[in-house]
Amino acid sequence: MNKEDVRMKKKKAGKRDGLLLDLLSEAADLLLFLPFRFLHKLFD
Fold first, then answer.
1. What is the pTM of this model?
2. Is 80 exceeded by the pLDDT of residue 26?
3. Whole domain around residue 24: which residue ranges?
4. Do 18 and 12 meet the contact criterion of CB atoms below 8 Å apart?
């Protein structure tokens, strides 16, 4: 979490935008994380 994230959360520029950003970052984490788990299963 960098300073820009903290600043945005403090500003609270619309709760819906914040929720959308949280969902996007969680989706990005999943998209990055799932292929790695899949690859690990392939190589095990």
1. 0.44
2. yes
3. 3-43
4. yes
